[in-house]
Amino acid sequence: MMKVVIVDDEPKLRQGLQTLIPWDSLGLTVTATAANGQEALAVIDQERPDIAIVDIRMPLMDGLQLMQSVSSSGLELQVIILSGYADFEYAKQAIKYGVAGYLLKPVDIKEMIHTLTRVRERIEEERLKKGPRSIEGINQEWLIQSLLVPQDTTEDPAKLRSMAQAARLIWSSYEVVAVFLRGPEATHPDALQQLADALKPDIERRGTGAVTVIPPYVILLLQEPLRGMQRREQLYRLLRNTLGNFRFVAATGGAVPVPEELNISFIKAQEALKQAFFSEKGRLLGPYPSRYPLPELPRLPGGSPEEMMEEFISRLYYSLEAGNQTMIRPLLDEAAAFFVMQEASEGFVKESFFFLSNAVIHKLTAGSRKEWKGTEEASRFLKGIFEYEHLADLLEETHSFLLALAEDAEPEGKERELKIMINIIQRHYADNLKLDTLAGMLNYSTAYLGQLFKNKTGEYFNTYLDKVRIRKAKELLEQGMKVYEVAERVGYTSVNYFHSKFKKYEGRSPSDFKNP
Which residues are in the HTH araC/xylS-type domain (predicted)? Predict the structure, then answer.
């Protein structure tokens, strides 16, 4: 991108221009500001900008004196003058120094955008006319940025090829890696450039590519494709070691054969970064999905999303109440898979987990005999759901929090009796369990206990038992056991009956599940 400095003694104007102008889309970036001509001289000497927006009236050194100094130093700088109506005659003197634009205050944003676009195009044309000798150093970086974010999609390929050749950018292949910083440190205006400078010794000085900055990304342009997992892991380790304590996520857009297609690789890298929440941690993302592994749902659940949410809440709650901790993580994974299937957006998944966790927390604490003192802790946990950067972290922390919460909640009355029932089913699913047997044990009528079980779990007793058996059967089939062995192990005396139950709940036969 071309560099711009803003020189004006009014802080509000400097801030306003930085905020209201869409610099990135114009192919420009504001690298510094100054309050007067003396400050500007130092800034210009350090930054070597392409464009300066200069107020004509300033203390210590005015805009005209600044232009005289710049002109005498031989710097190639396009200047856009700002002035009030009373300064018109004074501003005429600046014309002999070749001002690129003249705008009256208060600044009209549309007029400023038009002027900046025209000046940028003029600079591009002049650079192209000067040929290879002018396209060196910073101009190579400008060309890379222009190819990554093209302003003119109808640009003549032959012209682009000529510019790339002049800038020594004719390589056998090109691959864009975009690095996005996370956390409060990343908002520091100099952070991106500092990190880009830190990466240059390993990328540019070793002749493996180039490094540039297109906010909010640090961009690596690599000469060789990242073929194979080993090279991708090596690059990720380099990034991790170089960035130190900075939190980041990085993605590649894949290799392209010609410089004119750099923007295609860049776009794919950005798309991969947008899916970082759903991807595996600690890896270079893209250009193909590397999503966090979730269980496959063999068929669309029969209920509505609202009904399925209630089912997940009930299953989690009663599993926690029954002390069946091994069921919690699989249930959370299943819920995550369902939420992702409904709408593959990070916000939707986080909102769904907030609702799910909040409902389970209320159910658990409502049945507790003890006075619960974890309100603030629960509030922090629920608020933190929206701060997780990876689905893996969200699942892990939700799992840990629910298990810790369940230890502090002791059910009583009918809740305790239901816990006993579910615990018995989980531990003795292979036995010939019958509702009337449990009813007699708990001193209830069979009909009443059956209705109570249905109201609390959302399932009839036999359906719940079947689902537990089928869930265990899937685990045994995956371990390589034969179908008839699994049927007997989970409590079905008839293989045909087991076959029909399995197909009812899973939508396919045990054999098809075992050998997909």
Answer: 419-516
- The pLDDT confidence band at residue 473, using thresholds 50, 70 and 90, is very high
Rounded to an integer, the average pLDDT of 267-288 is: 89
Q: Order of strands, edge to edge, in the sheet holding 217-222? A: 209-214, 217-222, 174-182, 247-256
End-to-end CA distance of the chain: 52
The confidence band for 130, taking pLDDT boundaries of 50, 70 and 90, is low
pLDDT-based confidence at residue 188 (cuts at 50, 70, 90): low
pLDDT-based confidence at 416, cuts 50/70/90? low
Dihedral sign (CA 320, 322, 323, 326) = negative
Confidence of residue 37 (pLDDT cuts 50, 70, 90): confident
Residue 129 DSSP code: H
Nearest to 382 by CA among 403, 356, 406, 410: 356
The contacts of residue 271 (CB under 8 Å, 6+ apart) are 286
> What stretch of H or E contains 7?
strand 2-7
Measure the CA–CA gap between 142 and 455, rounded to whole angstroms.
67
Between helices 346-366 and 375-384, what is the axis angle to 10°? 160
R_g over Cα of the chain: 33
Separation between Cα atoms, residue 426 and residue 49, nearest integer Å: 71
CB environment 262-284: b (16+ within 10 A), e (fewer) = bbebbebbbebbebbbbbeeebb
Give the pLDDT score at 369: 46
Indicate if the pLDDT at residue 236 is higher than 90. yes
Query: How many CB atoms lie under 10 A from the CB of residue 106?
Result: 10
The arithmetic mean of pLDDT across residues 184-196, rounded, is 73
Taking 50 as the threshold, does the pLDDT of residue 132 lie above it? no
Write 402-405 long-range contacts (CB < 8 A, 24+): 402/316, 402/320, 402/328, 402/357, 402/360, 403/320, 403/325, 403/328, 405/320, 405/361, 405/364, 405/365, 405/374, 405/378
Cα separation of 292 and 278, whole Å? 6
- The CA distance from 280 to 390, in Å, is 8
* Whether pLDDT at 227 is above 90: no
**H or E stretch at 256:** strand 247-256
Token pair of 178, please?
A: 């975009």
Identify whether the C-beta of residue 55 lies closer than 8 Å to the C-beta of residue 9.
Answer: yes
Q: pLDDT at position 193, please?
A: 82
DSSP string of 193-221?
Answer: HHHHHHHHHHHTTTTSEEEEEETTEEEEE
Q: How far apart are CA 203 and CA 146, in angstroms?
A: 20
**Which residue's structure tokens are 């999905």?**
289
429 vs 409: CA distance, rounded Å: 26
**Residue 190 burial (CB count, 10 A):** 9
Contacts of 467 (CB under 8 A, 6+ apart): 459, 505
